[in-house]
Give the backbone structure.
Amino acid sequence: MNSVAIIGGGASGLMAALFAARGGADVTVYEHNSSVGKKILASGNGRCNIINTTATHADYAGSDPRFVTYALKQLNFHYFQSLCHSIGLLLDIKEDGRCYPLSNEAKSVLIALKSAVSQAGAHILTESLVTSIAQEGEAFIVTSSNDKRRYDRVLIATGSEAAPQLGATADGYAFARSFKHEIIPTYPSLVQLHLSSKYAPKMAGVKTVAKVTLMIDGKKEGSVTGDILFTPYGISGLAILDISQKASHALLHKQRVSISLNLLPQFDTQALTNTLEKLFAVIPTQNIQNALCGLMPAKIVTYLLDDAGVVLSTHVSMLNPKEVKKIAHLIGEWKFEVTDTHGFKHAEVSGGGVSTAQINPKTMESKLIKGLYFAGEVLDVVGKRGGYNFNFAWASGMIAGKEMAK
Ligand SMILES: Cc1cc2nc3c(=O)[nH]c(=O)nc-3n(C[C@H](O)[C@H](O)[C@H](O)COP(=O)(O)OP(=O)(O)OC[C@H]3O[C@@H](n4cnc5c(N)ncnc54)[C@H](O)[C@@H]3O)c2cc1C
């Protein structure tokens, strides 16, 4: 029987514990928090977007997104769904592929998983901070804040630095480095962005729907339409989180990052110019500030007009065609420079991590050190918003767990 140490009692560690223990291994999970699965509890605004039915490598970023392909095939959605049923967890499957527990409570995911892990016979040590992992012949010595123990196999499932308030650490990278693994530089992802703008802080608290286009070194890198929210530091909202991985990666590499907001994505510039001209003809004595308030939030109107150099009290009949065009253009393409992200504390996940080039995707074992395994977010794999990050954590954890029991 293999003795297995799993460092980290998060999504990937618990999944690995379940499969390793079911496979007959003697499993010990080390978790430095007072309880396991804190990110599971906090996920999806307390609802846990547990998986996505449609996940493929295209939903991930990293040096080699195809690294996930084998794992996602092994833990395909139907397999995961029946696994959930077998531990008493029913799923609510949304049309776009996102899945949540039927209870709509993240708590139920953790309760089901934790009891399955215990029933399988794995031991969970909480308040046990692992401080080092050393090799001794073919075995490993795991030193924790409580003791020192010997194991045949070790899984590093310590996650990333994102959300340190939930117990996240960068320890996994240090352990990996101590075994000569390469770490791809990490960066916050699914995170809010800082803008260099005198207007953004003044619009703090204003929420609207916009088409957000990301520009890197002046080149369009894609667009997302969804909620945006101005904040004292810059901008937040689901559309911003969705473009944040590419933005944050570019900032890490010192590229120039900006966003362009289309505040009325229903119109192109010409259609909007025509609409504004028609609207202004109906209300010629209205001032431009009030006239635009029927189209978008009032605070946005105030600062957008300031940026356009148009006096708020100007009667719409006094605007010349060039000015109307300028306003329409700014509504369709209001540009902001991105200076930073809001940091790991506010990020849901991290990009970068242990290089997947040194990991066998079919076993999750290190190609450098026999018996050493990696799973989950500690690896250089980061998913989109929508259940993809748990998806890979479950899949890689399952594979590592099965393999470590062999
Ligand atoms: C607020 C929030 C919401 C999220 N919502 C979603 C969502 O709805 N859907 C989705 O797919 N993803 C979501 N994510 C991302 C998802 O939670 C992670 O991708 C996933 O938890 C990664 O699993 P993991 O096992 O790799 O790491 P984790 O779940 O972070 O687990 C790592 C564990 O290791 C422990 N640890 C670290 N260092 C040590 C050490 N030295 N000794 C002992 N223990 C240690 C940590 O305390 C932690 O419990 C969310 C993340 C956050 C922060």
